[in-house]
Amino acid sequence: MGRVYDRNRAQHGTRLSEGLAASLQAAENRRPPRERLPENIEPAQGTFVTVELHRDAKGVVVQPASEGTRQSAESASNEGGHHTLVLHLPDTEARAKLVRAIEVYRSGELTKTGKPQLASRMEPIEGFQPTQLEDLWREDPATLPDFGMPPSWWALWCWEDFVDDVCDLAHALGMQVAPEDRWSIFPEALVMPVHATREHVQLILDIGAPGLAELGRATDDPTILVDLPGRDQDRLVEDLAERIVWPGAEVPAVCVLDTGVNRAHPLIEPALSPTETQAVDDDWGVDDHHHPGHGTAMAGTALHGDLTAPLADSSTHELRHRLESVKVLPPDSTVRGPNDEVNYGAIIEQAVSLAELRNPTRRRTICSAVTNRNRPGDRPTLWSAALDRISSGVDAAEGEEPPKRLFVQAIGNIAHSPDWGSISDAEVQPGEDPSQAWNALTVGGVTFKSTIEPKDQAEWSACADVGDLSPFGRTSCAWPDGTQPIKPEVVFEAGNRAKNVAGDQVSDGMPSLSIISTGKGGAGDGLMPFYATSAATAQASRMAATIMAEHPTYWPETVRALMVHSARWTPKMSAEIDAAPGMVGRKALRRRFGYGVPELPRALASASNDLALVAQAYIQPYDRPGRTQRENRPTGPIGYGRAHYYDLPWPTETLEELENTPVKLKVTLSYFVEPNPLAGSMLDPARYRSFGLRFDLKRKRETDVSFQRRRNAAIGDRVVSGDADEGWFFGEKAIAAGSLHADVWLGPAVELASRDQLCIYPVMGWWRDRPSQNRYLDKARYALVVTLEAPETQIDLQARIAATARSMISTRSTVGVEIGGTGSGDG
User: Fold this and answer.
1) What is the pTM of this model?
2) Tens of pLDDT along 154-193?
3) Which conformational region is residue 148 in: left (phi greater than 0), alpha (psi within -120 to 50 degrees), or beta?
4) I need a surface site. Which of 364, 419, 765, 808 has the fewest CB within 10 A?
5) How far, in whole angstroms, is CA 632 from its chain's centroid?
6) CB atoms within 10 A of CB 417
7) Superfamily for the 226-416+425-444+471-478+517-566 domain
8) pLDDT by residue (tens digit) across 623-667?
9) Rounded to whole angstroms, how far apart are CA atoms 671 and 245?
């Protein structure tokens, strides 16, 4: 029998009705008007209301969830002896239903037993109040950050079906959302850490958007895990191992080239077969010889990512990729010659061959954090050229499809120094060999970690701000801009350094400023802090393998394109880029930040859109159509082959209706070149690459015919002739070297409506310039990713693009036009 409350229903109903009306009006008064919101946020219709409950009430359902309302868990008693819960009423209809429910209780007919209708819902309620952040705060009220305080890490407890909404809103409000590795999953809710001020979080409440269940501090301090006694660490590790759905044999793998792996670790063994742990020299053994276990930490991170959140939550984690290990670094006891570094190109090539011989058909990501500390990546080397050779598949037998391979390579670490001033400027710390490899996805470091454990806060502070470059990661700012590719292309969490108050001491590897990975093993050694660009590279490899598992038909070039295409700059990076002086300044910052931090959901979403937006195609860059034949080879002049023209599935009417509303078009082009690292390649990228590709968008006053005529007349030119194409973030002149090109066009929707064709065209390479090699008739392949966003409107462009694309499939999606106007055909 339920609790009986001594209520006068008329008086109680009136009090509830008046309290609810006042609370709803207060929430409406707090809702920011459209002009005060960021341009890409539409005002929400929802409202948060706090419900005060009788001290004895338990398990009260104020409004059924079936009506769209979400109800937080009941909080502890307040000073008046009451406890509370928070309702989110999603729209005017939900609000009206609650108002009607109170009215039915107050003045409706009594039930057959003589009780007011809905008494079980209304009588436990003491009253309604406008919701404050304190009502959602699940921790000690004294720990709630105050207005005016610096940004800190908040834990947004989100209803599981509104995670994307909360994430998008947090990004739009300028919060730094933590990478997914730091999210925790629980039944019905997901915890998303964000770096924000109280003012930012208050806006979520005031806007009234759905999804927020509770608030707290993001307290995923790795120090707690690392400092646990060995037995407690082991229990945590074993618990997580039991919650993992381990992968089968027929899945992609991350092949870790490092110091070996201790595969006996419970979080590694089920995903790493003993036959797939190898070494380039049998005398080295296959176990991890490094102390405290670099290769094992690389493997754990490549498999699981940051272990901090998974160790703390209670959810099941499904793995869809495996591990392989090839030891490429000798044990410390091995006698090494003074010139061993020059052989690492051959060593890496041997390592890849070992992995492929063991499992020839497996799709794999090759992960390497090994770099040459004594050589910058300012020019091609044997090592970097070897990576380009291997990834381009030049070792294929005659007549076979070249086996393309995806390398994920670290850019290298800034060496430790006790003097923070001497290592604080990453622009003068050039990326190390072989990070300059054109075809590799080179990884730099970012950090989202700035909170130092309390016992050290008085003496130490984080060197880098949240969302800035990790103090460990190098850049390519000091490389020759016209001859070396943009590196790194992407950045992942690499941890932070700490400095003392005087700045004359620097600490590396603080657990609270690092991620957590698998330790080498043994008592109390199951977990370890992991940091620097090694950690970042392992995380990038994990993302690549995840995309491979999700899309088994996508090429390595496509996986690389999707990762770069999904990347975005943090608020900290964006502030610097927005303040840069034009294209030249933005171009320089790209050598610091790359294209930003990749986001797996965005990569998978891009990959899952209509195929008109993700293309994989073969192209013949060059041709030699001469009339006379000698030994079955043309003898005329070598020219350019075919360009590809893509009809873009723009919803023209929608874009015209949006008029001057800004829209964002992002294009990413990825291909692998065969290198020619002779000395001349240091002066001219065209001498290094076998072929090159570029993209061009139809101008606003061009027809399809005039676009193709202009483009074909300028084929092979790095910079297109004619009027400057304004609106691009980096522009045509920003592309010189490299085999991955990405840019963003920002402009009015009505202009883009008519710019509905994209061209992929060849530029000079040694296949054309070296006729003696007989490669000018070879075909190459590329991956293209194109997305369109309208940040300032809620219109679902993707759905309309998909509808337009489906209607175009029966006509054409790609047209190859033979250069010189001699004819056309499918490209």
Assistant:
1) 0.89
2) 999 999 889 988 998 999 999 999 988 788 888 888 999 9
3) left
4) 419
5) 49
6) 11
7) Peptidase S8/S53 domain (3.40.50.200)
8) 987 655 556 666 778 999 989 999 988 888 888 888 888 889 999
9) 34
